[in-house]
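quick one
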Amino acid sequence: MLVAVVLITGMSGTGKSAALAELARRGHRVVDTDYGEWIEEVPSTDRGRAERLWRDDRIDALLSGHDDGALFVSGCVPNQGKFYPRFDAVVLLSAPADVILARVAARATNDYGKSAAQRELILEDLGDVEPLLRAGATAELDTQAALEDVVDALERIAARVGRLRIELTQGDITQVQADAIVNAANSSLLGGGGVDGAIHRAGGPSILEESRRLGGCETGDAKATTAGDLPARAVIHAVGPVWQGGEQREDELLASAHRRSLEVASAAGARTVAFPAISTGVYRFPVDRAARIAIGTTANYLAANPEVERVTFVLFSDEHLRAFEQALAEITPP
Ligand code: AR6
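structure w/ AR6:
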C-alpha cells in the first residue's frame, strides 16, 4: 500500500463519519478528529460560540508518525489550514443544503443540528465556511452519490497522491530482506558472474536446478524460481540488454526487464522486491541512463499496483548509489 495521508473535511452532515466508517471497514487507518484527544475548546470567538481547534502537538505527532499505508483523517476546524502542507490530499465532501438539513435531522449518532438555531448556524456555515474549505481542497466529492462510490473515489485519490515506495541502499543484495530478489541473469538462466554468481552461491543449488527447467529467458523478460537458502519467497531472474551503443533498443529492453520483474514478483505474491542495477556490470549499460530507466519504470508500476509495498534498489558501488539518488530526485516533487 502507498504512504498517503488524506484529510477528509466538510460541513456537518456531508457524510464524513459515514465515509470514515466505510474506509475503516475496508481496512484503512482512520482518525476522526471530532472526538477525544485531538480537539481543544477555545472560549472566545466572533460569533460567541466556543471554537473547537485541533491540538497542534497531537495532530503533528499523528501526521509525522504515519509511515505505512493510507491514513484518512477527518475533521473540520478553523486551524486545520496550517496543516494542509502535511497532507497529500485535502478532500472536501459536500452536498446541497436541503440534503444536509435532512441528514442532520435524521441522524441518530449526533444531536447537533436538531434545534432551529443550530439549523440556522449550519446554513450560515455553508455560506461562510464551505467556500474557504473549497478554496483549500485538492478535490471535492458530492456525497449524494452512493457511499460505496464516495469511498472508491477516496481510495483512488489516496492511490494517486501516495508517495513513492522506492528505497535505495548500498550493499550486497543477497543480504537484503525482501519477498522477491531480482537477479541480473543472462538468457540461458544457467548462472554467471556478478550478482548472478552471488545469488546462486548464497541461495544454493536448488535455484540452478529449477532454472534449468525454465528453458531460458528472452532479453527484456523475467522468470521466477524459489529462493533456495535465501530468506526470500522468490528469485526473479531478469535478463537486461547488453549495451551496444544505444541503438539496439537497449532502453526499451531495460525498462521491460524491470516491468516484467515486477509483474512476476506481484504474481508470486511479493509485497517487497529488491533489485540490483541490472545491466550496469558485465553488460556495460551507462549507469546514469540505467538508473533513470530503472527508477522511472518502477515508479510507474508502483503507482498502478498498490499491492507492491516497497521496492529497494541495492547498489554495489558509491557511483551506482549516487546515480540512483539523482534519478530518484528527478522524479520526486520537492
Ligand atoms: N549485490 C548487489 N549488486 C551487485 C552484487 C551483489 N552481490 N554483485 C554485483 N553487483 P552484473 P549485468 C552489481 O555484471 O550487467 C552475469 O554474469 C554490479 O556492481 O552482475 O546485468 C550474468 O550471468 C553491477 O552494478 O549484471 C550475465 O551474464 C550490477 O550488480 C551478466 O552478468 C549488475 O552487474 C549480466 O550483466
